[in-house]
Structures are given as C-alpha cells and as structure tokens.
Amino acid sequence: MNRIYSPTIFLLFLLLSCKKETPPAPKPLEIPIVQVLQQDVNLESEFTGQTFGESDIQINPRVDGVILSLNFKEGGLVKKGQLLYTIDPLPFQTKVNEAEGQLAEMQARLAKTKSDYEMMVPLAKINAISQRELIAARSSYNASQASIKAASANLKNSKIELGYSNIVSPISGLIGISKVRVGDYVRPGPASVLNTVSDLGDVRVRFTVSEQEFLRIFREISKKDSNLKNAAKTISILLSDGSIYSEKGKISFADRQIDPATGAVTFEAAFANPQQLIRPGQYVKVIVTSDIRKNALIIPQRSVIEMQGITQVYVLGKDNKVEMKAIQLGPAFKDSYIVTDGLTANDKIALGGTSQLKSGNVITPKIQEWTPGQGQAVK
C-alpha cells in the first residue's frame, strides 16, 4: 500500500511547492507637497544701465606744445588745483618777454607824446605854433594811450597762455590712465583728450525704459490710491558678479523726450558710493519696482506642467489623492508664478519631478516649506 500512494503524495507536494506567492501591493509614491502662498508681491523689472561719476571732467590742452611731465599717479586720487601735466613753457615765456618789451616801449612813447603835447598847449595859446601842430601832438598822445592798452592786453594774453602750459585738475576725484606720455605733442581741440577726472562721491546710473513700459508705470503711479508711487522711487542695481549693490538709489530725472530711434526714454538715478566700488563705465542691471500685487497667490515654477498651451498643477485632495487642475498664470516672481485663477490659498500642490505621477494617484505627501527665491526646505 505504501508503494502505491508514495508517488502520488510526492507529486502533490511538488505541485504545492511550485505555487507562486501573491506579490505585495506597491507603495504609494512619496511626492513633495507645498502650500499655495498668499502675500503681497512687489514685481520688479530689470533694465540695463551704465554708470557715470557725479562729475566726469575731460582734461584737454588749451595750448599746443610738447608734454614735459606727468605730475600724478594714474588711477589715483587728485585734488582740485593739483598740477597734472606740464607743457613746454619756453615758447610762451618768450611771448611774455616780447609783450613786456613792447609794453615798455609803448610806455616810453606815451611819456614822450604826453610831454610834447603838454609843452605845445601854452605855445598854441600865444600863437607860437599853429593849431595843426597842436592837433598832431594831441593825436600822437592819444595813439600812445591806445597802444598802451593794446600792449597790456597782449601781455595779459601771453601770461594766460603761459599759465595754460601748467594743466591742473578742475575737481577733486579719481584720475584715469593718461592718453599721452612725456614727449608727445598736443594741441587744443575737442578730440585732444589727455585724461578724465571723476568725482566718485556719488555715481549716476543711466538706463532706458521702453515706451510701453513707461506708459504703464506712469499710468499706475498717477492713480490716487497707487501703491507704486513710493515704491518706484527707490531702485537697486545688480552688479556684474550677480550681487546686489548695498546702497539704494533714487531716480533723479527722466529725459524730456522718447528717443525716436529706439522708442525708449532715458532715466538717470543717483547712488551713494562711499567705498568707491562703482566706477564710471560699468554696466549694471537696474531693478525697479514696476507693479505691486496685493494678496497674490504664488506657487513654485517647478510645480507647473504645461501641455499644449495649457498650464496645470497637481492638487492634493482627500485621502492623499492628487488631481490635475488647469490654472491661469500671471507674471513670474523670482522662482515662482503668480496664479490669477484656478487655485485658492488653502490648496496644496505637488512639486512633481517624476513622470510616474498621474491624476488620481494616491501618494505619500512629503510636506515642504518654501519661500520665493530661496528654494524649499523639508518640514
């Protein structure tokens, strides 16, 4: 009997051992979830600007000649009235000497003609000389007086030219690299620039705003209850290394016209420059508050899914189920978007980042806190 049933029992045991176990149910996806934020938002616009010193004075020669000396350190600070360049003064000193000689000669002639005239006056009264001779003597005396004025003016002009051979700084500030060297010949003219001195106590930043943006901001500021009126007066600049300049600026003026070639209006803003970090000629990003949204709803940009022109987000519902929802987006704010329709301040949305997430999925929410422009931090 054992021999008959042993094979059967073995076969049943083999079949039972080969039966597949039922696989466990997959775990819900762990998805980062953030709360829709509601807060006041200052929207900012960026414009490209260029920096200038408070005063940028070009140094030009006013007489021609050979440069004898440079009396400053290039790139250093100079004071008002400090000697910068010396032009060979010899030709101008010669003119001064000649003018002094001419003046002395005219003074001697004046003394003679005056003496002759004064001597002839009593003689003419007694008819010892003719009236013609008296008139000639008076004319010579008057001509000598006029010659004195001309010679004095010539001497004064020669001394002025001699003074121009010493070129001094018109302001205190930072001087640049010299465009001429000792031995170079220079001459007056707008194209003959020796150097530039900049007053860097304050700096000016010029930037252009498109006509459309200008009109929009102007209309907003003109409203009686505008929140933008005070906010737009204070501006910031972004330096080339990506850092925000520590000093805030204020708009000084706007140009009287819109440039017909570019369709833009030029603005200028003033910034304090206590450390002289800003130098003339730098290109910076000018940041201006161009709109203020009260109680705006904002969400991270990485949570938005765009398909065929429709923007959507995954919204966390009951029982940790997510549903895709269409929304309307407003302008960008840092690394987030302003939502104008489709969400409420009570909604929680998924950050996404995985193609496995589908509408109707039940997930394990991983709640995160976030701040626009500062990323997310795990709660």
From TrEMBL:
<dbReference type="InterPro" id="IPR006143">
    <property type="entry name" value="RND_pump_MFP"/>
</dbReference>
<dbReference type="Pfam" id="PF25967">
    <property type="entry name" value="RND-MFP_C"/>
</dbReference>
<dbReference type="InterPro" id="IPR058624">
    <property type="entry name" value="MdtA-like_HH"/>
</dbReference>
<dbReference type="InterPro" id="IPR058626">
    <property type="entry name" value="MdtA-like_b-barrel"/>
</dbReference>
<feature type="domain" description="Multidrug resistance protein MdtA-like barrel-sandwich hybrid">
    <location>
        <begin position="57"/>
        <end position="194"/>
    </location>
</feature>
<dbReference type="Pfam" id="PF25944">
    <property type="entry name" value="Beta-barrel_RND"/>
</dbReference>
<dbReference type="Pfam" id="PF25876">
    <property type="entry name" value="HH_MFP_RND"/>
</dbReference>
<feature type="domain" description="Multidrug resistance protein MdtA-like C-terminal permuted SH3">
    <location>
        <begin position="295"/>
        <end position="353"/>
    </location>
</feature>
<protein>
    <submittedName>
        <fullName>Efflux transporter periplasmic adaptor subunit</fullName>
    </submittedName>
</protein>
<comment type="similarity">
    <text>Belongs to the membrane fusion protein (MFP) (TC 8.A.1) family.</text>
</comment>
<dbReference type="InterPro" id="IPR058627">
    <property type="entry name" value="MdtA-like_C"/>
</dbReference>
<dbReference type="InterPro" id="IPR058625">
    <property type="entry name" value="MdtA-like_BSH"/>
</dbReference>
<dbReference type="Pfam" id="PF25917">
    <property type="entry name" value="BSH_RND"/>
</dbReference>
<feature type="domain" description="Multidrug resistance protein MdtA-like alpha-helical hairpin">
    <location>
        <begin position="97"/>
        <end position="165"/>
    </location>
</feature>
<feature type="domain" description="Multidrug resistance protein MdtA-like beta-barrel">
    <location>
        <begin position="203"/>
        <end position="289"/>
    </location>
</feature>
